[in-house]
Hints:
Layout: H1 5-10, E1 21-29, H2 35-52, E2 54-63, H3 75-88, E3 92-95, H4 101-111, E4 114-117, H5 118-129, H6 133-147, H7 177-211, E5 215-221, H8 227-235, E6 253-257, E7 263-268, H9 278-283, H10 285-292, E8 296-302, H11 308-321, E9 329-334, H12 340-349, E10 354-355, H13 364-378, E11 380-387, H14 391-400, E12 402-408, E13 412-419, H15 421-426, E14 431-433
Amino acid sequence: MSNSPYDEALAGTLIDRTIRERIVLVAVADPLADEEDVEASLDELSLLVDTAGADEVARMVQRRDAPDRGWYIGKGKAEELHRLCLAVDADTVVFDNELAPAQQYNLEKLLGRTAIDRTAVILDIFAQNAHTQEGRAQVELALLRYRLPRLRRGAGAKLSQQRGGVGARFGGGETKIETDRRRIMRRINKLERDLAGLAETRALQRKGRSRSGLASVAVVGYTNAGKSTLLNRLTDSGVLVEDRLFATLDPTTRRLSLPGGEPVLLSDTVGFISRLPHGLVESFKSTLEVASRADYLVHVVDASSPDPEAQIAAVRDVLTEIDADRVPELVVANKADLAPAAAKELVAAHPGSVAISAATGDGLDLFLRTLADRLRALSTVYTLQIPYDRGDVLAAAHREGEVVSVLDGDSAWTLRARLSDASAGRLEEFVVAE
């Protein structure tokens, strides 16, 4: 039985899965905001809450120019929210935007129950789904950074979030605030050092892969868009596939042979979501580097979602934040079996994209041909002369690139092959023209 700080933090605080919490959702919307957009955001929050293991029992929207500084919603609305919570017997209130520590404290005092925000729910889901050493460290770091400014009320007070339930996977126990703050800071510093060490290991692994000369392709997309299903379909990788948000947190890399025979490295990534907490992006940067360092991105879009264009925009926002927006991308409209008309519209709106169903395999041949063509366009065609007694070099050229043609000469083969810069460097003594 593990007794790591991660497991100790989880011990005794996980909610009873047989008794799901009752949640009231709350949003503040601009008076001119479209009602459908407000409801869509709350619908997504409801899915997040369900994934975390709780049930929505009511929702409330307040129209105002800006959130109230002290209460997020106005105090009169907060009192109305209290009455609603009593009427529906709610355990917790979840707000659609991030609460300031003072707002959270004021609301919990007035409501007499837990008040958390969208960020806390996402962190809670990540805490449930992290399995590898790196993933667990990244999640714990993000959650501790989130919790630190929320320690309040002076030297003799208890931590405000010690209970189980959504948003409370890491209850801190009954410690004095100053002592607990120092303990959390020490833990944050240790996690940062550990993740730096893991990042160095990942960098060494990347160097090994780059020496192989294989192109790197990262599969990105909104959470639950079907990235892991696609990776499994293409590589039989056995990645966990569930119809739930953030089922995959830990990246998986597999080798894939394209139609022309050239191999590439295909990597899965954590799903993105609108307003992905900045702390999570910071904590997961070493994992997300798989996207920023890729040669090409496969951007998987759920064609059956209510607003796929909004999901595309949310993914691109995160890609920009991690400096991956410069990497060329191939948009893939997935779940075409569920929404064929919407998939066709996406393809029309994004020239060069393709429609597929990762679940059934429809459209995958076209997808692979398109990806192969895109990658070939990034590579350079070299002419090599390889002596007949160097069959090992001929094999290396076939293994590391795409051989376009082979001519037999008096004493050597003359090859034209598409090669990466790394592969061309290793075969430099045989290159005669570019």
